[in-house]
């Protein structure tokens, strides 16, 4: 029996052990840690009062071999949570004992226990313990240096390999969680030793070791860690050697590395680009879905590079069919979907088909967010924006076959393809739309719910063209059919139809006025039909309708139709009910996701105040003057929850526009907070902070010293893909530079780099970029500009020359 350390208050050993095993076994019976914690949280918190409790947890994990592995692993995971919550309160003796046991058991014969020990090690390391655990990295690296066996012919050799795998697993987790500190002087830059060591194991005989080695190095690509950049050629050479590795996990990590290198070291990949494209084409069709998914990301990343067209033009004949084929629901996708209410039999799965007796509606599980289908569709979307109508000769022959195919799975994928190319290939598609739109409207009545739902989305992508035609030709039939789908018996279709109709409302605006009575009849009836989730989308559709038709909705008969069900829903809810939020947001068109109940009301209150500031303009001045709103907003700007900060910065921007005289005295307090929130990890927070800085700069004029933020803002935004939030943030940057061009002078290279990150900026934003770039060039003169631009990496120089003529 383990001799336990006695520190402070303690329970008798037998009682503590029984309590612990009771908790762990109950956790296993509960089937998940979450459920176990819900049932046993009070008991675990009580046990945490006794320092010995954590000794017992590590004992069960590493020594109690009489218990099965899931029970031992759960004990380790409970300890991991204790480390996260209470580690700095652990007595030194307990901390040292846990660390010692982890290192002694990193090579456990069980993969589950090895993984749990690795998780525990990296959790301790993430609590700042890399500095206080100096023996950790040397110990793990020494285990990598243990004698290497190509074959394991005896027990000692087997355990040697297990320790090596366990050490590598722990190192991989440390590299994932502590990459920044590993490349710092705090630890004397251990990566200078670790990176070359990892590279040695790319050719190891064990697939698991090879996979760990690549995964460890991958953590340092995006950050351009110097220790890796010094060995970049050796790294790439070793990656190529692993390209056809038999182990899927190795191939997945190779694909992931090439995708990241495409972003940061294109210069090293360029000489091999033809071979890399051919390789990624092959891997996108890999039998292992995880490998194929990583490879598919390559096309998304390549589309953002200036060389995309030149590199891919000769490969489109092969690439487009691969992406289109990936957009079909796979057999496993279909099995993972809940049964369709209209039919329990799903054909096309081979043999006699599969009978699914689930109830409810079609719904993709959360993993579909990262599925081959969605990644292929996203890749086709961005490539359509790069190649525009040049893509159509490769797409149209496939579409003709897919859209009219008798198998619903194939037809559904064709409709998805048609939607994916809508934005990029719109001009070239116009001649075909008079035939395709009626066909799609007909597909809205398809017997398969998945066909109906994807058709709603695809039609919404062509809504702009639909409303540009005579109303009776396409708008009225589409509106009529979408309203019927809003009342569909299938929840997935309800959701898709509501979203599509909201898009149609935005495009059609007052074109919908003649049909308001019919539209409101349908939307009001949906109140009685919809359940919680889809009610939120219904509220959004009603709010969008109000924005789109404006005062035309302000008629007694329409108000009488719409208000009673809204008031009824309002009266049914308690003051603390979160379902109040979407009803409040009918007054404010900026829905958010919420987490903690106490913060939810803060967010909604901030958003409602933003709406009032925007709507009342200068008339809100007296209300602000008589309140402590700026003090409260200052506190909200420092909240831990990103959504609270996001809404706070939006309110700051609106108040700056509406009543700057009240904001101005607080600028010195606000600006440091704004500067620390220019982090693209939280894109909406970063966007709103940038926008608020822009509004303040407009008000303050030349008193505002932009150079403090130029580097941070541009560095944060350069890695964000094109979207509306990025557009808004860059307009703020351009506004700041226009107000105070000299303020950005020292950091102008960061602005150039950020501008070059755009693939397709809107025309007016592109004009703003051109004016700023050419203005800077003219100000410094051609010779100084040449010397300045010689500092640019070659891809940046080429992109600015091609897109902006500088």
From TrEMBL:
GO BP, one annotated term: protein import into nucleus
GO CC annotation terms, alphabetical: cytoplasm; nuclear lumen
Localization per Swiss-Prot or TrEMBL: Cytoplasm; Nucleus
Start and end residues of each Importin N-terminal domain: 40-108
InterPro entries: ARM-like (IPR011989), ARM-type_fold (IPR016024), HEAT_GCN1 (IPR057546), Importin-beta_N (IPR001494), Importin_beta (IPR040122)
The keyword Transferase is assigned to this record: no
Main location: cytoplasm
Keyword check for Secreted: no
Alphabetized UniProt keyword annotations: Cytoplasm, Nucleus, Protein transport, Repeat, Transport
MF-aspect GO terms: small GTPase binding
Homology family: Belongs to the importin beta family. Importin beta-2 subfamily.
Protein name: Transportin-1
